[in-house]
């Protein structure tokens, strides 16, 4: 079978069968964490059952742990388009970013500059702002509030020969904007700066190729792309070897060992590899692939995901824009939907975001309210003090019927006396 088979996709995710107050649950909370395929659950269980030992031992369960870690590094390397030894695992993207920012901070000189943006999750802001303690100067790039896109002219104005790191998101977790990373990386490298990319929100929606981007670092979290709670970081090999990590003795000086402090989450990494295996099968089924590399299969999966999610996003956004009294944040022009993920943020007259999320949640539709750690953005848009926004985040396991159900409920809410 070829083409996107939503019935097969949904059959892979056992949690989608839940109900709330007699209604099927609708998971529009994907930007906060996606659901996982059954094979991820099985892989984690099997790891704890058959491979529950620390690494590098002279016995069977330890050797199996070594194999699990090697498989996870190889799988994520194919996902990101890099080599296995350029992948570093940790608890989550935030922790990995703090670790890398501290190491980079060791080399900063007084008055050198770092650039962050108003569009990003604070996990790619706070670790760099913390380096002000070492005398670094942090510059913040503004946005265009009318469509929540990055102000590239402001970025150009703030870049200079003192800039050492440009920290930016691949896609905005609050409003879905996909940044022009190729241009951002080019601009940063033109002044000798490194780029640190937060790809957490983008990873479930589109393909990543760190070689093509030429970025210096890129971080993501597997629980946002159908896996368990683990973080992964790509770094150019020369950077991972040059920088000095904070680590215990006598930890190995090989990469990625020198960056992976302490015992890793073995069962989690087994789940990461299984999540990527799910994407491989989705790619094979969607494109009818019979023989190809894992990278080919993953690229085919993301093409199918993007095409399917584009249809859902068009349906959702056009329906939302037709609701009276609704304020929509972000890109709304269908001709520009290649510049956004299917994540939208709204407000509605006479209802706080928490009231909307509660109203929907009682009817089995899961959404997020607040700032989702995109604090710079909600402050810039002037909504932080009044509850932020309601975020509706689609994933490829959602359906058109679920989108229509959400729109019907919001329409009913508007029509209530």
Detailed description of the structure:
This protein has two domains: 6-36 and 294-415, Alpha-Beta Complex (Aspartate Aminotransferase, domain 1), CATH 3.90.1150; 41-275, Aspartate Aminotransferase, domain 2 (3-Layer(aba) Sandwich), CATH 3.40.640.10. The protein has helices at residues 6-11, 38-50, 60-80, 93-105, 126-129, 152-158, 181-190, 210-213, 237-242, 266-287, 294-321, 353-361, 375-380, 400-415, and strands spanning 19-20, 23-24, 26-27, 87-90, 113-117, 137-141, 143-144, 149-150, 163-169, 194-198, 217-221, 231-235, 326-329, 343-348, 365-366, 368-370, 389-393. The strands form five sheets. It has a seven-stranded mixed beta sheet with strand order 4-12-11-10-9-5-6, with helices on both faces. The longest helix is centred in the last third of the chain and has 28 residues, at 294-321. The protein is built from 14 helices and 17 strands. Strand 10 (194-198), helix 8 and strand 11 (217-221) form a beta-alpha-beta unit. The chain is an alpha/beta fold.
Kindly state the number of beta strands: 17
CATH homologous group name of the largest domain:
Type I PLP-dependent aspartate aminotransferase-like (Major domain)
Order of strands in the sheet with most strands = 4-12-11-10-9-5-6
Fraction of helical residues: 25-40%
CATH architecture of the largest domain: 3-Layer(aba) Sandwich
Give the overall form. globular
- Most strands sheet: 7 strands, mixed
Q: Provide a count of the helices.
A: 14
Indicate the structural class.
alpha/beta
Termini gap: 49 Å
Number of individual domains: 2
């Amino acid at each position: 079978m070829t083409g996107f088979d939503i019935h097969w996709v949904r059959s892979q995710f056992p949690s989608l069968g839940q109900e709330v107050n007699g209604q099927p649950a609708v998971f529009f909370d994907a930007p906060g964490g996606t659901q996982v395929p059954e094979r991820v659950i099985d892989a984690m269980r099997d790891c704890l059952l058959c491979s529950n030992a620390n690494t590098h031992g002279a016995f069977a369960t330890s050797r199996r742990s070594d194999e699990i870690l090697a498989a996870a590094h190889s799988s994520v390397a194919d996902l990101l388009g890099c080599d296995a030894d350029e992948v570093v695992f940790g608890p989550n993207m935030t922790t990995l970013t703090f670790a890398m920012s501290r190491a980079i901070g060791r080399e900063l000189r007084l008055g050198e500059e770092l650039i962050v943006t108003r569009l990003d999750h604070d996990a790619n802001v706070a670790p760099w702002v913390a380096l002000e303690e070492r005398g670094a100067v942090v510059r913040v790039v503004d946005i265009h509030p009318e469509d929540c896109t990055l102000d590239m002219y402001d970025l150009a104005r703030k870049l200079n020969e003192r800039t050492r790191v440009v920290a930016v998101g691949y896609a905005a977790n609050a409003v879905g904007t996909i940044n022009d990373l190729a241009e951002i990386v080019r601009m940063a490298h033109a002044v000798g700066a490194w780029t640190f990319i937060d790809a957490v929100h983008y990873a479930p929606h589109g393909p990543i190729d760190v070689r093509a981007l030429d970025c210096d670092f890129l971080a993501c979290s597997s629980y946002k792309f159908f896996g368990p709670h683990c973080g992964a970081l790509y770094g150019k090999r020369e950077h991972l070897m040059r920088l000095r990590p904070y680590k215990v003795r006598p930890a190995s000086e090989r990469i990625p060992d020198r960056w992976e402090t302490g015992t890793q989450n073995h069962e989690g990494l087994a789940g990461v590899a299984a999540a990527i295996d799910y994407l491989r099968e989705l790619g094979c089924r969607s494109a009818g692939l019979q023989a190809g590399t894992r990278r080919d299969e993953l690229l085919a999966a993301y093409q199918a995901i993007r095409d399917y999610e584009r249809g859902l996003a068009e349906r959702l956004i056009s329906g939302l824009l037709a609701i009276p009294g609704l304020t929509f944040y972000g890109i709304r022009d269908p001709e520009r939907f290649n510049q956004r993920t299917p994540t939208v943020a709204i407000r509605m007259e006479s209802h706080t975001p928490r009231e909307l999320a509660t109203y929907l949640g009682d009817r089995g539709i899961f959404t997020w309210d607040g700032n989702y750690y995109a604090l710079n953005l909600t402050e810039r848009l002037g909504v932080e003090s009044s509850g932020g926004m309601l975020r509706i985040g689609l994933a490829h396991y959602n359906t058109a019927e679920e989108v229509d159900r959400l729109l019907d409920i919001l329409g009913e809410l508007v029509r209530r006396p």
